[in-house]
């Protein structure tokens, strides 16, 4: 491939050349990322939050049958290629066993699954762009180890097959009018989320207090603030 590139025999070979050179043995592991405007966080980070962003599902095959795999995001892995012109982002997931514990259909819109066992331990990886975000809610009707899967259409995404032509026209109009408000959430790229995520630093439940400090104390107070935030058990 290198000889072909030098001779100019093969055109538009940047991607192929990167694949031919292989991966950099160093990988980056992250706690979350944003895919097309949707935030995904791993289960460890999700455990500290009051919201849920670790549920994933993906379409696949099992025993020559089309099924939907449901699971939890474990890690976000960034792979770089040697010439730095190409990269790939993978999701390492834990998949709930749907072979021994069949999904239980509650009605037309909801599915309840057993989350007590895992499968595909040796095949946990998917591309970040393949993942569909889902939410898991405790099944209060069917009981222990069962959770209801909820698929949510995000505010800037919708399935056109669910709407009539008139509704589609209205959605298109609303999208045009409110596009500026949604720009910050729309992205065709995958954005890595760093481990440190500072929450709101303003308290509204107490009166204001003015503190006078000298300049050389500012750096120390800032370090203490970050340290306290990192030790918090829950994130907002």
TrEMBL record:
<dbReference type="InterPro" id="IPR025312">
    <property type="entry name" value="DUF4216"/>
</dbReference>
<feature type="domain" description="DUF4216">
    <location>
        <begin position="79"/>
        <end position="145"/>
    </location>
</feature>
<dbReference type="Pfam" id="PF13952">
    <property type="entry name" value="DUF4216"/>
</dbReference>
<protein>
    <recommendedName>
        <fullName>DUF4216 domain-containing protein</fullName>
    </recommendedName>
</protein>
